[in-house]
Amino acid sequence: MMRRASSLDLVDAVSAGEPRAIARMLSRAESGAVEARSALDLIYQRTGRAHVVGITGVPGSGKSTLVAKVAAQFRTRRRKVGIIAIDPSSPFSGGSILGDRIRMGEVTGDPGVFVRSMATRGALGGLARGTLEAVDILDAAGYEVVIIETVGVGQDEVDIVRAAHTTVVVSAPGLGDDIQAIKAGVLEIADIHAVSKGDKPEADKTVSDLKGMLGLGVALAGRIVGRLAPVVKTCAPKNEGIAELVEAIDAHREYLASSGELEQRRQAIRERRTLKAAEVILHDEFENHREGRMAALLAELGTGRISPQTAARRLLAHVGMEASE
Amino acid sequence: MKTKTDTIRVIIAKVGLDGHDRGVKIVARALRDGGMDVVYTGLHRTAEEVVDAAVQEDVDVLGVSLLSGAHMTIFPKILQLLKQKGADDILVVGGGVMPDDEAAELKKMGVKEILLQDTPPEVIVSTIRRLVAERGPK
Ligand SMILES: Nc1nc2c(ncn2[C@@H]2O[C@H](COP(=O)(O)OP(=O)(O)OP(=O)(O)O)[C@@H](O)[C@H]2O)c(=O)[nH]1
Ligand SMILES: [Mg+2]
Fold first, then answer.
1. CA distances in angstroms from A67 to A28, A149, A181, A261, A274, listed in the order given
2. Higher pLDDT, A125 or A20
3. N or C: which end of chain B has fewer CB within 10 A?
4. Cβ pairs bridging A and B (under 8 Å)
5. Do the beta carbons of residue A210 and residue A186 sit within 8 Å?
6. Do A101 and B39 touch (CB under 8 A)?
7. Position B5 confidence tier, pLDDT thresholds 50, 70, 90
8. Given CB atoms, is A24 within the 8 Å cutoff of chain B?
């Protein structure tokens, strides 16, 4: 019965926090099912309460381990936590191994924590297609904190800033001399820096290097721009620094609310979502409509009468798009 | 649109105390290479944890591997918990070692398939595809 339930029929159950309905709705969002569109629109209307926290950092830096501890800490403060954990898809088979749950045993079985693994399915930027709809679903279902664990970041993988209210960048000591956040070019996106694996002897150096870099940024700019991101040293297995990290997240949320920046961020997220959605629609429309036209164009191209540029413009015109001159 | 709706989702869990997961990882890789999304939960899970994870992940298939000999208690428990949570459309597949008559009994209880320890990965992939196809769309 549940199996074939229409998405619209699931909306109220999602709002009521029923795990099966939430889980199914998440699958529909992930697949981009047309059938789910109006249900997702309804769900969107019921969002806006959750604080969305992005956790990013290079592969193996300790994100999942930290996410589990942070979630457990929020639970002691009686807040419900949704977690979206993203891992990459194989470019060869399209399949994936989603292993973030391995580190999340501690919060498994707690009805106040909902963990969902998602594969990137070719999406760049560290998020998966449907991630933000997934956030909506967990928000509407009453999860007060929604944590997104991105895939490991590189220079081009900073979509999280336009998805989360608070971005935590995780740096682990001993993964090379440089601070990974600098190397990856993501120093600037952090609202909070977490230095993980605080039990390692090099951790203190990573903390001071990071503080030095952040201070240098301020010195170069000649002023403090907005606020200086705090650096928190954590050791997840020993539960050290976790309360501090959660307090830093809450402090950032309060800062956003009191400075008026929260609305700016929300607006930036809306803008990004709209543009991304438009891109996806364009791409899909194009895939759907190019079929019949391409063979004829190829024949013409073969004669050498038209160039690929001209062919591309005709193809777009066929799809219903006018390329401007 | 190239649809992603038909990506099969599988969760693989190891229940019980036996300590290594080499075999499970090989299976996970084979399923990934077969185009499936495979959630791997790690070692030493309880039946309750596995069922909760399977529900949240909205998987098509729950694969449980155990070598500890506790299958005649763990599988019935998993089936019962799934039913209790209204999630008994999740296909349960067992792996590991057990005598034929017990495998037959588990299948009677509702375990969809038992894949013994030496089943080749490609057979595991094709079995899961077949079970999901027989069940029909989600
Ligand atoms: N010594 C030490 N090891 C840790 C700590 N936190 C995590 N680890 C280990 O670091 C490894 C990677 O941890 P994960 O939490 O899986 O890292 P991740 O960033 O989520 O990894 P990906 O999702 O694969 O990018 C694991 O072996 C953890 O046990 C810590 O505080 N101290
Ligand atoms: Mg991880």
1. 25, 8, 18, 25, 28
2. A20
3. N
4. 106
5. no
6. yes
7. low
8. yes
Cut 0.80: pTM above it:
yes
Task: Find chain B residues with C-beta within 8 A of A90's C-beta.
Answer: 32-33
pLDDT in tens, B75-86: 999 999 999 999
Q: Sort residue A148 into left (φ over 0), alpha (ψ -120 to 50) or beta.
A: beta
For chain B, which residues make up each domain, given as ranges?
4-133
Average pLDDT, chain A: 88
Residue in A closest to B14 by C-alpha: A102
pLDDT digits (tens, 9 = 90+) for B20-72: 778 888 999 999 999 999 999 887 788 999 999 999 999 999 999 887 778 88
Domain A47-259: give its CATH code. 3.40.50.300
The DSSP bridge partners found for residue A29 are none
Question: Measured between alpha carbons, how far is B90 from B105 in angstroms, rounded to an integer?
Answer: 19
pLDDT for the residue numbered A86: 95
Ligand 1 atom closest to the CA of A152, numbered from 1: 25
The dihedral over CA atoms of A289, A290, A293, A298, expressed in degrees to the nearest 10, equals: -170
- Written as six digits, the tokens of B35 are 């185009």
Question: How far apart are alpha carbons A149 and A175 in whole angstroms?
Answer: 19
- How many CB atoms are closer than 10 A to CB B46? 16
Direct distance between the N- and C-terminal alpha carbons of chain B, in angstroms, rounded to an integer: 19
* Domain spans of chain A, in order of start: 47-259
Predicted confidence (pLDDT) per residue in A182-204, tens digit: 665 667 789 999 999 999 999 99
- Note whether A93 contacts B33, CB cutoff 8 Å: yes
Q: Which residue of A has its CA nearest to B42?
A: A102
Mutual angle of helices A131-140 and A19-31, in 10-degree steps: 160
Contact A24 B138 (CB under 8 A): yes
Give me the CATH topology for the region B4-133.
Rossmann fold (3.40.50)
3-state secondary structure of A168: strand
